[in-house]
Specification:
A hairpin with a 4-residue loop joins strand 2 and strand 3. The protein has 12 helices and 11 strands. The chain is globular, with a radius of gyration of 21 Å. 44% of the residues lie in helices and 13% in strands. Strands 1, 2, 3, 4, 5 and 6 form a 6-stranded antiparallel β-sheet that branches. It is of the alpha+beta class. Helix 8 packs across helix 10.
């Protein structure tokens, strides 16, 4: 079935003129459908290798966007532009299965907005912080425990540590001897990996609806006002901790170097960008975070960075089977960058905590 026929399986308006590849996402296959009288839709092929249960995935997205739509309407916003709108199939389902078993969904296209793959200005980073903070605020009363884990134990850092140790022990490619220093660095931090989840278990941190992929390109920026208007890519929306969402944004956006920079002397935490993100995130949250959650934000940044480094190092030890690599030792460079960022955070820890206060 060609892409035009796929689009017509949904409750769309007008006839399909063209369907072309769209965006820069690496997980799902995304297309822009142009209709006969100017209407546009987003057609996406869902990656069922990563998201194995399409029913649970789409149930999460429908429940969260329905809730957001009510919140946006209640506060006088425009739900057509400020959250994703799922277009149902002609028989009322949230996705369509093609003859090869492929799973497809359609969203309404949000006009007059765009995404950016990299932070081009401090204002971009601030706007993304406000948007993800607002996402937390609007979903503060949503029952997070009713959501499915689309990727089980995604940010369970203690589990990631156990997986890492299994990779070290197996050493299937004989690489462990080359990375003794990096292995030692992870083990030095093993006492911290369960800290946030322990606080959750004790009731010291609340379970939240979390996005779990808080990069700038998952925010739509209004073309006229340059304000963030909509959080997109809701596939990894799951129960979690606010510190995880905050921390992953810092890991990615407040690093002075690229994620795979081979020269770790270029790697550091930009306190300027950290402060900008804290300001925007807390402003967006609108007072919905608890005192303990605010105190936990620096630890969220540290743990998300350590966790990512562990995953890169484990993948390196296993023969580069998960993350795409484009050169020899690519995953090793990535893990070293993350660990250098953790080390720099530790040097700046007191200031990070002061800024969150």
């Amino acid at each position: 079935m060609d892409k035009k026929q796929l689009v017509m399986q949904f409750q769309v308006e007008q006839e399909v003129v063209s369907v072309e590849p769209y965006g820069s996402g690496h997980i799902n296959h995304t297309y822009l459908a142009q209709m006969s009288e100017g209407k546009k839709y987003i057609l996406q092929g869902i990656n069922t290798t990563i998201f194995k249960d399409t029913d649970q995935l789409m149930e999460n997205i429908l429940n969260v966007t329905s809730y957001l739509r009510k919140e946006i309407e209640r506060t006088g916003g425009d739900p057509k532009r400020e959250t994703l709108t799922v277009v149902l199939t002609k028989d009322g389902k949230s996705y369509f299965t093609d003859e090869d078993g492929g799973k497809w969904r359609v969203y309404e296209f949000i006009e007059g907005a765009q995404t950016f793959d990299a932070v081009e200005s401090d204002e971009d980073f601030y706007q993304s912080a406000v948007a993800f903070g607002k996402f937390q605020a609007m979903l503060a009363n949503f029952p997070a425990d009713t959501l499915h884990e689309t990727i089980p134990q995604f940010h369970d850092t203690a589990k990631r540590y156990r997986d890492f140790e299994k990779a070290v022990e197996a050493d299937v490619k004989g690489r462990a001897a080359k990375v003794e220093k990096e292995i030692a660095f992870v083990r030095e931090h093993s006492g911290e990996v369960s800290m946030l989840h322990d606080m959750l278990a004790k009731g010291e941190l609340p379970l939240r609806v979390t996005h779990n992929d808080t990069k700038l390109n998952n925010i739509m920026i209004d073309a006229d006002s340059h304000k963030a208007i909509c959080v997109i890519d809701l596939d990894t929306v799951m129960p979690g901790l606010s510190a995880h969402d905050f921390g992953d944004a810092i890991r990615f956006g407040a690093n002075t170097a690229a994620e795979d920079e081979p020269d770790t002397s270029k790697v550091s935490l930009s306190l300027k960008l950290f402060e900008i993100y804290v300001k925007g995130f807390l402003e967006g949250c609108g007072g919905r975070l608890t005192e303990n959650e605010i105190k936990a934000l620096p630890m969220g940044a540290k743990m998300m960075t350590l966790e990512c480094g562990m995953r890169f190092l484990a993948d390196y030890l296993e023969g580069d089977v998960y993350f795409k690599t484009s050169r020899e030792d690519h995953n090793l460079d990535r893990c070293r960058t993350q660990f250098a960022l953790v080390a720099d955070m530790e040097k700046k820890w007191q200031r990070m905590c002061e800024l969150c206060k």
